[in-house]
Batch of 2 targets.
Target 1
Amino acid sequence: MSTINPASAATDAPARKADPCVMVIFGASGDLTKRKLIPALLNLAVAKLLPEQFAIIGYSSNDLTSEAFRVLLTEEISKFASCPITPEMWDWFLKRIYYIKGDFQNPEGYKTLKQQIAAVEKTHNISGNHFYYLAVAPRFFGEVVRQLGAAGLVEEGKDHWARVIIEKPFGRDLDSAKVLNREIKLILEERQIYRIDHYLGKETVQNIMIFRFGNGIFEPIWNRRYIDHVQITAAETVGVEQRGGYYETSGALRDMVPNHLFQLVSLTAMEPPTSFKADDVRDEQSKALHAIQIPPPEDVLNMAVRGQYGEGQIGDEHLASYRTEPDVAPDSSTETFAALKLRIDNWRWADVPFYLRTGKRLHKRTTEIAIQFKRAPFHLFRDTPVEKLETNRLVIYIQPEEGLSLRFGAKIPGPILHMGGVEMKFNYEDYFGRTPSTGYERLIYDCMVGDATLFQRADMVEAGWSVITPILDVWKALPPRSFPNYASGSWGPREADDLLARDGRSWRKIE
Ligand code: BG6
């Protein structure tokens, strides 16, 4: 593959600083703040995208003072920062960090918050813009928004804005997502709501749109005439770690599919938007999600596979089964693996299945989208066994590897006409170097400049749950009988292979 000079490549790196504002983090003493949010804000400061008039107020029920909160963050930052930190930089930051103790359900806390915001605004010369990051348990989402409304903390004016970032999971099925949307829309306008999905903060995910719509050569073949099927894999080697309590109420399907995997589906399947404006892009994503066929209950067992990891081995490490993990029931029927076959009912994708799989304790950590193209007509290679005929495949590597590869057939050198598969590869780091990132920078920055393109709209969330809820219902009604059904370190249960084998296909072999 010939190279381009990255220095000469056009860049859309945002140049303008974010608007002056106060960021309030609800649930500030939790993991997300120290692991992701503060390191991401630091990266934004290094990139000179944070304004001088900026401050953070942490809010949670833990008994801390602002000073103690600063000490806590100082102790942790070296563990989680993804860029080198100078004392001046950290000092700049600490001067802008505050903390107040408060309950999520008690109006008194919100009164104190209001006073604190006013004081902080005065100190830092900030003119009324606020955004609230809800890093709290999902049961508090509606409550916090209601309390913010009652305290008059989300009112907007001609010259100031108020926005709320809501973490996942947004609902646990279609009904609860609808209830939550209704609840928060009583207080907030849709334009104030930023439903975050951290997958959209990944460079390679954002690149899908550029790859498809910024190049002239892929779009003409991006359809049912040329594509045989699509495979999306999000595999993790880790188990549930210390999150057994949460995971038991969620399972792999809820945890990964209607959010992260459906983002990948919608970006792969959407029509070109008329512009990169937030609603133009999200309209097309939403249409693609709405076109996914909702499975009738009688089809669920044919199009969806679930699994749970048993004991196993990755490298030299012996791994315990899910049922022996902390906070997991010894007879748990929670799935740690899910695979689906989706159909997208529109002209572009009719008869092109999208196969999705995700799971914990799988053989290798990787997230990727593989576009499998149709075979070339056979007549020239009549004597070649079908399995030897190399098909064209484009793989978009999301993580940990970041890049693309295109596989095609080539003549193997020699006097006899033999064909072999070869690959062209593009690796992000080779071209652009490594940019320190937690994946949250772009999302936080976008909220601060009012760009909701990479956030989920209510209709997108509900479209996702519409597809998943019938599967959850059938799985609940018919508890699994074969769990655990895959060994840790494998590629999941045999039924996931059968899902594709029934269509004469197989999962891409990931080494
Ligand atoms: C989270 C899930 O949303 O995404 C986790 O709750 C999962 O269970 C994680 O491990 C995967 O994210 P990433 O960025 O590591 O692929």
Note: The mean pLDDT is 93.
Target 2
Amino acid sequence: MDNIPNILVFDSGIGGISVYNEIRQKIPKANYIYIFDNQAFPYGDKSNEFLIERVKAVINKAISTYAVDIVIIACNTASTICLPILRTSFSMPIVGVVPAIKPAIKITKNKCIGLLATKATIQREYIHNLIRDFASGYKIELLGLSELALMAEQKLQGTAVNLDDLTKLMKPWLELAVVPDTIVLGCTHYPFIQPELAKVFPDVTFIDSGYAIAARVDNLLKERNLVNSGAKFQITNNLLCSTQYNEQTQKLIGTLQKFNLINYQLIKI
Ligand code: DGL
């Protein structure tokens, strides 16, 4: 009998769906549990101490409730601070998402890269070490914003992104003498508003980490004989969980059914 992995994908909101989509494309034959911590959204404005405790509590609750083979922290804001502690706290493999600065270096032609992320992510030591170690000789423009993750959430709840508002937020980059030719989407929410960002920056290449994470998850599961790729199989019991239920959650549950997340469960932290 084939082993079918149980894959837990976690974010503060809908952002991790951009990662879940990539993983599901690569590994269709798996059970997915998607958990979003909407009670504590947005993570981008929270302290490091709060995030470490919160993410640990959610993962703890999830793995004591469901059988989980691998955890994907599909959130740059959480991954860039919580990964080491999570890996010492839990025994299953934990994969995180960090901004795709290294791949962006291979793409940029004008040697100017923009990192768009939450306020918390651009302040992380992890990011500054990454830039120091891998991007010397490149100009890395950092822009940390609170509003974009919310715009993405609202878009998935049915409210279109206001392009004037978005353009105003991007002003610091639009006024630069050298505008980045490559923009790293350093928050998993941002792929959902990439079409609108591309209207503000028409000649720019956007890059996110979803594809690379999917490849990493696939490799880890293969090492553990948990993936039989090539099999044609449709799992129907994927699960969607949130930490709070309200009107917005209700709208999202409807939208997320499109992504084969049909069953819903509230988890209380
Ligand atoms: N999706 C999250 C990230 O990748 C953060 C959004 C938020 O909660 O601020 O950083």
Note: The chain has two domains: 6-97+210-266, 101-207.
